[in-house]
Amino acid sequence: MQEVIVHTGTYRNMPVTDKVFKMTKEYKDGASGPYITVCGKEHSDMPDRNVRINVKGTSCFSLMTNGEVEAPEKTETDTQIIERLRERFQVLEDMTYASCDGVVRGMVVTGPPGVGKSYGVEKVMNEAEMMNKMGGGTTGTGRKYGMEKGAASAIGLYKLLYEYANEGSVLVLDDCDSVLYDETSLNLLKAALDSSPKRFLSWRSESRVLHSEGIPDKFEFKGSIIFITNLKFEKTRGKIKDHLDAIMSRCHYLDLTLDTMHEKWLRCKQIVTDGMLNEYKFSETEQSDLLDYIHTNRNKLREMSLRMVLKIADLKKMNGEKWKRYVEMTCMRRNS
Predict the structure, then answer these.
(1) Residue 117 CB: number of other CB atoms within 10 A?
(2) Cβ 109 vs Cβ 101: under 8 Å
(3) What does the domain layout of the chain look like in residue ranges?
(4) What is the pLDDT of residue 140?
(5) What is the 3-state secondary structure (H, E, C) of 13-43?
(6) Reduced to 3 states, what is the DSSP secondary structure of residue 220?
(7) 152: which residues sit within 8 A by CB, 6+ positions away?
(8) CA-to-CA separations, 21 to 1, 2, 9, 64, in angstroms, rounded
(9) What is the pLDDT of residue 138?
(10) Percentage of residues of the chain with pLDDT beyond 90
(11) H-type helices in 112-238, by residue range?
(12) Using one digit for the tens of pLDDT, what is the confidence trace for 211-255?
C-alpha cells in the first residue's frame, strides 16, 4: 500500500502536519474541496478506519517509497542534478580550505549517510596537514587538523576544543549528534562558534580529570569547527530547535540537497564514473553491469549510498558469477 506524508491538511477541522499514512485512495477534487483517503489506524488521534484528509492541492502531500519521499515530477534533467550536486560538494571542499585558513570559523554540513560528506572534508584536511608539516607548522604554530567520530560527553567536548584551540586548527565533529542533545555541550559549541573577536570557553565545575591533564578551567578558542551530520537543523522541532537555530546563526550551513532516492543514485553514479571503482579493475562492461543492477534494485537495497556501492563491488570482485545472489542475501531487505 502506498505511503504518503501529509505536509499540511485537516481532518474534521483539526490540523494534520507532517504525518505519514497508508494511502487507500488517490487524490480527488471533490465537491467540498480536494482530499486524499488514508488509513488512520496508526495514529492515536485518528479512528481505526479510512478517513479523508482535506488538502489545498497536490503540493500539500508527497508520496513515499521505503520511507523516503519520492522525487516529484522532474524539473531538472539528470545532468543538471549531477552538476548541482557536484557544485555543492565543491563548495564543501572550498569552505573546508577556508576553515583551515581560519577564514571560516564554523560550518554545519548536512546530508544523508554514505554520500561522501566526510570524504571531501578529510581529503582537504589531509592536504592541509601535509602542507603544515612541510612548512614546519606542527611545531611553529601548533595547528591541528582532526576528525572526531561518535559520542562525546560535555567534558570530553571541552577537552577536544582545548586540544584544537590554536589559531588555524580545525576540529571536525563527524556523526557526533549526541552533543546536540546535551545542553552543556550545546552551550560550549555556541561559545566556540561565537562571532565576537575573542571566544572564551570555561568549565566552572570541579574536575579532577581536567586538573590531572593540565587543562585550564578557562581558555580562548581560536580554531574552527566543522560539524557533519545527517540531521537537518531547519526541520527540527521542540526544545532543541532554539539551540540549533542559535548554532546555525553562528555557522555557515551547507545542505547537500540529496533528499530523494533518485538524487542519491545519481550521486553514486557520478562518483563511480569519476573513478571510485578504479582499483577493482572492472572492465567498462562489468562496471556498467554493476551500475545497472544497483539502479534496478535501488528500492530493495538496505540503503542507497557509496558504502553500499563498495559492498556490492566487493561481492562482484569476490565471485563474478554468484555476486548477485550474495547481494540479495546480504544487502537487500528481507521480503523485498
Answers:
(1) 24
(2) no
(3) 3-69, 78-255, 261-330
(4) 44
(5) CEEEEEEEEEEEEEEEEECCEEEEEEECCCC
(6) strand
(7) 160, 173, 176, 178, 179, 185
(8) 10, 9, 12, 10
(9) 45
(10) 54
(11) 117-134, 137-140, 154-163, 183-192, 208-212
(12) 889 999 999 999 999 999 988 888 787 778 888 899 999 999 999
Q: Identity (one letter) of the amino acid at 182?
A: D
C-alpha separations of 99 from 232, 250, 271 in Å:
21, 14, 25
Specify the amino acid at residue 216: P
What's the rounded Cα separation, in Å, for the pair 243 and 181?
A: 9
Determine the Cα–Cα distance for residues 127 and 121; give it in Å rounded to an integer: 10
Minimal CA–CA distance to 244: which of 254, 231, 256?
231
pTM above 0.90, yes or no: no
Better pLDDT: 159 or 59? 159
Task: Please list, in sequence order, all residues whose beta carbon lies within 8 angstroms of the beta carbon of residue 266, skipping any fewer than 6 positions away.
Answer: 78, 81, 82, 85
* 164/143 Cα distance (integer angstroms): 8
User: Of 31, 9, 33, which is closest to residue 21 (Cα–Cα)?
Assistant: 9
pLDDT tens, residue by residue, 123-168: 899 888 888 777 655 444 578 899 998 878 899 999 999 999 999 9
| 51 and 241 Cβ atoms separated by less than 8 Å | no
> What is the percent of the chain with per-residue pLDDT over 70, rounded to a whole number?
96
Q: Could you identify the residue written with the cell 571536525?
A: 172
Which class would CATH give 78-255?
alpha beta
C-alpha cell at 54: 482535506
Identity of the residue numbered 110: T
